[in-house]
Amino acid sequence: MTPMTLSRHVISSVTTAKVGFEYLRTIGKNSFLGSHGSGGVVTAYVVETDRGAIGWGLPLYDGDPGPLVGRSLAELIDPERGVIDPAAEFLDFPLHDLAARILDVPVYAMLGGAGSPRVRCYSGGIYFDDLDGGMEAIRTNLVQDHAFGFRDFKLKIGRGHRWMDPRAGLQRDIEVTRLARELYPDAGILVDGNDGFTVNGLFEYLDGVADCDLYWIEEPFAERRPDLQALHDRLRELPTRPKVADGEYDPNVDHVLQLAGEGLVDVALMDVISHGLTGWRRTMPHLKAEASPHAWGLPIKTLYAAHLAAGLGNVPIIEGVPGPGSYTLEDGYVVLPEQPGFGLNLP
User: Is 70 helix (H, G, I), strand (E, B) or coil?
Assistant: First the structure.
């Protein structure tokens, strides 16, 4: 791949388009937020060149595309590194899509193809629906996500942080975890506290699910070194040691990398969009742990995370947002298309 191919293209327009999305169902509460709704509409950016090439995607943030019109594409993105002009950083995903389409390769191939285009993917949609529908709601959600194609499940825990009495909430967290393990004995079970636990409260939860063979524990509390060290020591006492995943919420990336280097964080979770493809391309070589970019919110973020996993490697599993239209899920794996770019046409 050579930037010379991109230098023949000049940005002729940058426009926006509204893109709708929906979940399989209304998604309920987590440890501190209310209902997440059933879908919505987001703004995508569409970048076109004077030779008729078009790429599109979600922005990292709102930016000003005006100064980019009339610029050579090769001045904005290098296929080997990502976006190279800070003024174009907000168009990270549209520019990756555009460059890969011009080069006639999938984005994951442009990223290096270090992983498999068949990416293990868990359902990230098991929230606190039991608060309204009882345990049967959790059972129904698990069955629905399994029918959709998921084989691994992430459960939201931390009901005692805000929504229930602490003792009753802890017991419900344990019951939900044990139900998932009972229904799907071969599944990877991941749990996410959204920083809703104390150290002692988490240890009580772990005592109640010690035989459930958790795959990972995500964001049990803020990334405090002493607490993570205590957790690290406690996990060694379990029959099987879950991974510790952290770095999603407002991360200090240098701090997360340091904790990973110390063995206190096993999986780094910086968001696939807010950290960006270019950001992950810079970060991954320095990460002394695995990665699994946070992808909750939009089904298309699952597609982005899958391309990152297949492109950069070092991503054993990604977050699946249960919803149709953005990715193909087969027996627990996102199967990436061979079409150029992200392989997804603007709806």
Answer: coil
pTM of the model: 0.97
8 A C-beta contact, residue 247 and residue 253: yes
CA distance 277 to 279: 5
Which pairs with CB-CB distance under 8 Å and at least 24 residues apart come from 329-332? Answer: 329/121, 329/148, 329/149, 329/150, 330/118, 330/149, 331/149, 331/151, 332/120, 332/121, 332/149, 332/150, 332/151, 332/152
- Give the pLDDT of residue 33: 84
Q: Which two tokens stand for residue 311?
A: 């492109």
Radius of gyration of the chain (CA): 21
State residue 3's pLDDT score. 62
Q: Assign 3-state DSSP to the chain and report helix, strand, coil percentages, each to 5.
A: 35, 25, 40
| Contact call for residues 85 and 69 (beta carbons, < 8 A) | no
CATH number of 118-335: 3.20.20.120
Q: How confident is the prediction for the chain on average, in pLDDT?
A: 96
CB distance 232 to 263 below 8 Å: yes
Distance CA 167, CA 204 (A): 10
Place of tokens 């509409």: 41
- Please report how many Cα atoms fall inside a 13 Å half-sphere around the Cα of residue 194, on the Cβ side: 19
Residue with tokens 């999603």: 248
Burial of 208 (0-12, 13-18, 19+ CB in 10 A): middle
Report the C-alpha gap between 112 and 243 in whole angstroms: 26
Domain made up of 3-106: CATH architecture: 2-Layer Sandwich (3.30)
In the chain, where the domains are located? 3-106, 118-335
State pLDDT tens for residues 134-168.
999 999 999 999 999 999 999 999 999 999 999 99
| Cα dihedral: 171, 297, 122, 290 (round 10) | -100
d(CA 45, CA 88): 12
